[in-house]
Amino acid sequence: MDDAIETLLNEVRLLFHRAVQVAEELHAREPVTLGMRAVLEYLHRNGPAPVPEIARRRFVTRQHIQVLVNGLLKEDLVALGPNEGHRRSSLVMLTPAGRRLIERMRQREARLYARTGAGLPRRDVEDAARTLAEVRRQMGGGS
Predict the structure, then answer these.
(1) pTM here?
(2) What is the per-residue pLDDT across 60-78, written as a single tens digit (0 to 9) for each?
(3) Concatenated DSSP letters for 66-125?
(4) Distance between CA 73 and CA 79 in Å, rounded?
(5) What is the Cα–Cα distance from 140 to 60, expressed in whole angstroms?
(6) d(CA 41, CA 86)
(7) Which residue ranges form the domains of the chain, and what is each CATH number?
(8) Residue 52 host element (H or E)
């Protein structure tokens, strides 16, 4: 089983790097990095959140997310608002421009995904996603 997990994780790494290359090409004209895109995606899916929460959920440091948020603030793609739960940690929220940008990027990606998965049985893709989620959970990656 160790060899199978090693092979799986190697494929994940190779796929990740290829996905980064494809995404950089796909969104080359947008004013954000892929890290910034990930923050926009998080906010789009989950709503406003403080920097520490975004970092925890993305398994990266608070400082890394803060740098990305600072860049998004400069582009007016996010704004900071009051956080009832913590006075010193503002909520990061999408601006209308940020919402339009992430929706435009997601539409572009959806077209790519439709072409990419055209020959794959849906059940196989769903099984692969469940398997990867379980490996992540067993490695202490939460739910």
Answers:
(1) 0.85
(2) 999 999 999 999 999 999 9
(3) HHHHHHHHHTTSEEEE--TT-TTSPEEEE-HHHHHHHHHHHHHHHHHHHHHTTTS-HHHH
(4) 6
(5) 14
(6) 23
(7) 31-138 (1.10.10.10)
(8) helix 51-58
